[in-house]
Design goal:
This protein has helices at residues 3-46, 52-75, 79-82. The protein has 83 residues and is mainly α. The mean pLDDT is 89.
Length: 83
């Protein structure tokens, strides 16, 4: 194996590890998003207008959307090259 081939193989392994790590982070973010979304939906259905719980449920929903937006950024090709 020549040095160029070894270098390319090393780059490919590093890229695979990076993609795996990003996938794990995305999966965790999606899981958190799902749980928060379910909590906010249950809160909106449970609490009546004017109750503090309804406001908290809306806040949880906003946090869930923000987490989903971060997860969506991980799907953008080349995002880490631009940061």
């Amino acid at each position: 194996m020549n040095p160029t081939s070894q270098h390319l193989q090393h780059d490919e392994q590093r890229n695979n590890r990076r993609q795996r790590r990003v996938l794990i982070i995305r999966n965790w973010l999606n899981g958190i998003f799902i749980v928060l979304s379910l909590l906010s939906i249950i809160g909106v259905l449970y609490f009546k207008a004017g109750e503090l719980g309804l406001l908290v449920s809306y806040g949880i929903a906003v946090i869930a959307v923000l987490i989903k937006m971060v997860e969506a950024m991980f799907r953008m090709p080349g995002i880490f090259n631009k940061l």
